[in-house]
Fold Lipoprotein.
Amino acid sequence: MRWLLLIAIVFLLSACSFFQIEVPPDAYSVETALQILENQEYRLVDIKEVDQYRDVEMKGKVAIFESKTGDVLLLYAYRGEDAKQVWKAVKKKSGFLSVRSILELPNMGKFSTILDGKRIVSWWKKRWFFTVEGRNGVDKFVKHVFRVYGVLKE
């Protein structure tokens, strides 16, 4: 029985590698990390400074993107030593989350939910915290963000 439990734990931990969470290199500024996401599919409309997100203090930036299909997406970005605590506070403020929508590990985390009619996907890793929100196209945009940041890692 112990061996079965041990094998199950090892399998689950190895499966976590499938849940890749990508962030830019630490050398990047928050503004640069947002600007490099613009391409033919997603036009960067504006970048503004923010002091908080959902009543959680975080001095970062928000980028407004518009997709080719007209979807407006907000990408909040923060870099700091307390990125994990910011993510946990945002997760708590976001209300009910199902177990299926949360990935929480010691070195990274991600959750997704729907709040006020908007889809929200939030993640942290290392010193970075990001949140994408919008009415449509959020999951596709998050995949784009992970793809761009994944290329930077290589």
